[in-house]
Design brief:
Distance between the termini: 87 Å
Structural class: mainly alpha
Strand order of the largest sheet: 1-2-3
Number of strands: 5
Helix content: 40-55%
Radius of gyration: 26 Å
Number of helices: 20
Oligomer: single chain
């Protein structure tokens, strides 16, 4: 019995030695892997577009169609069977053709401020990911939709210091529920000018024109030149006659109230620098950065606040370098980049400075109304910054001492878009038409009324109140999305959650274009 006990103890001792050795070996492997992950060695630069991610390709093709759903005017090559010509007389009271452009959401107003933002973001997506869009046959549809907006914006700027920023009366429009093709109500115009300035909307329109001029520079140089001329004039108007359109025209506060115009001035100057190569625009961003840019303080990218977008866009200049940039200007660009990195660190869920503005499932959540605009816009910026790091051979991003790779930013973006496409507690896709389960009662006038119905202002409400799903699919619409508790009520009477917007369409198209495949981004747009 004593011998057996002795043998048992010896066996136990050797077993413990083996366990300790295994633990030590695993620890060494993890340490080496962590050290390797945090090394200064940059990941390889991606080549031309690689393998297509079919999930994101399918979603992108749907999202792109929502721009067709939202088009106003005399439609060309109309792909949406239940849409037709509408608002053909828009602008006639000022002897202008403002029939084109896009309706803002589920209503029929043309709000110039968010519409211009839509054009700027769509331009940015094309400039960065046009080759990836082209790989899934979405580049031309993107350019066509962009031009539908910029044609409108050109006509809305009839003279240097006049810009028409709204078509339609929102209060009157919201008392009606009818198809846009049947509208007969008056469509009044609102303008900003030297007496009633609107710096933010003029500057955002300048950004849209400047960025779009780059998109069309090769394919239509004359059109590109026209856009750039308007962009320069609008920026000068915005900067010289400073004043918020929310102050000049108080009625705009109800729907698209502006919290300030400084961000739009920096945003427009940044795009004009990219479009022209004129260093005076770059100097403008640096010289006004301390006062306008909120350096060091991360913000949310949206139709109202362009700071995070500007910081990422100017980080591009700093990461890739640009000819003729002075040391002082480069110091300013470094401040933009540091703030862009603070934005990225806030988005990464494991970062020491990670934002707490998230749902339990990890979706960025900032606002109850149209909740999905912020996570999708944030994810778009994260994909961009990830690709800037890869293409500039920047190995890592430091967040309070912890290091993160470009792939960490991409994985964050993937987590957000996957949530949108159905990986969420409701098991529903918030992109209309994608997957087996998506919103069927979208708050959208045209989608909710049969195409063969004839409506006036009020009799269309029988379809608004109908218990039946929408007869038409607002294909590609990104609806408002979940509450903080991740619940969602699919109801036409719930615009907070069930109404899509055109600018949501721009950020989801940008995000999906960045994820549909991989390729290196260009070092310069020109």
């Amino acid at each position: 019995m004593g011998e057996r006990s002795k043998s048992s103890k010896g066996w136990c001792g050797w077993f413990l030695v083996l366990v300790v050795a295994a633990v030590v070996a695993v620890a060494i492997v993890l340490f080496i892997r962590k050290k390797s992950d945090n090394s200064d060695k940059a990941a390889p630069v991606p080549g031309p577009p690689g393998a297509i991610d079919e999930k994101y390709s399918d979603a992108l093709k749907l999202a792109m169609q929502f721009f067709d759903v939202q088009k106003s005017g005399e439609l060309e090559d109309n792909k949406i069977s239940w849409r037709g010509n509408s608002a053909l007389q828009d602008g006639s009271e000022a002897k202008l053709d403002l029939s084109k452009g896009m309706y803002d959401a589920g209503d029929h107003i043309k709000f110039g401020f968010p519409m211009a933002f839509t054009a700027t973001v769509l331009s940015w997506a094309i400039l960065e990911y046009g080759d990836q869009m082209d790989a899934v046959d979405q580049l031309e549809p993107a350019k066509d939709s962009l031009k539908w907006i910029t044609d409108y914006l050109i006509n809305a700027h009839p003279s240097e210091n006049v810009l028409y920023i709204q078509v339609g009366d929102p209060k009157a429009d919201h008392k009606c529920w009818e198809r846009p093709e049947d509208m007969k109500e008056k469509r009044p115009l609102i303008q900003v000018n030297t007496s009633a300035p609107g710096t933010e909307v003029a500057a955002e329109t300048a950004a849209a024109m400047a960025s779009a001029s780059l998109v069309f520079k090769t394919s239509d140089s004359s059109y590109s030149d026209t856009l750039l001329k308007h962009a320069k004039q609008l920026f000068n108007f915005a900067d010289k006659y400073r004043g918020s359109y929310s102050v000049s025209i108080p009625e705009v506060q109800t729907f698209y109230n502006s919290t300030g115009y400084e961000d739009e001035l920096l945003w427009a100057a940044s795009w004009l620098y990219h479009a022209t190569g004129d260093h005076s625009y770059l100097k403008y961003t640096v010289q006004n950065g301390k006062a306008f840019a909120n350096w060091g303080s991360p913000t949310w990218f949206s139709w109202d606040n362009k700071l995070a977008g500007t910081q990422v866009l100017l980080s591009r200049v700093n990461l890739f370098g640009a000819k003729g940039v002075s040391n002082s200007d480069n110091s300013g660009l470094q401040m933009y980049r540091k703030t862009a990195e603070a934005v990225m660190c806030g988005l990464l869920p494991k970062s020491p400075t990670a934002t707490t503005s998230r749902t339990d499932s990890g979706l960025i959540w900032v606002s109850e109304w149209n909740a999905l605009q912020h996570p999708v816009a944030s994810a778009f910026l994260a994909v961009l910054y990830s690709d800037y790091m890869l293409s500039s051979r920047t190995a890592k991003l430091s967040c309070d001492g912890d290091s993160y790779k470009p792939s960490d930013l991409r994985n964050f973006a993937i987590s957000q878009v996957n949530y949108v496409l159905g990986e969420n507690p409701m098991k529903t896709s918030y992109l209309v038409g994608y997957g087996d389960k998506y919103p069927k009662y979208v708050h959208h006038r045209g989608a909710s009324i049969p195409a063969d119905a004839t409506t006036n202002c009020t009799n269309g409400f029988k379809w608004f109140n109908s218990k039946n799903p929408n007869p038409n699919v607002a294909v590609g619409a990104l609806v408002g999305g979940p509450f903080l508790n991740e619940s969602f009520v699919d109801s036409r009477n719930n615009p907070m959650q069930a109404e899509p917007t055109t600018y949501n369409g721009a950020v989801i198209v940008g995000l999906l274009s960045g994820l549909v495949t991989t390729s290196s981004v260009v070092q310069s747009f020109t």
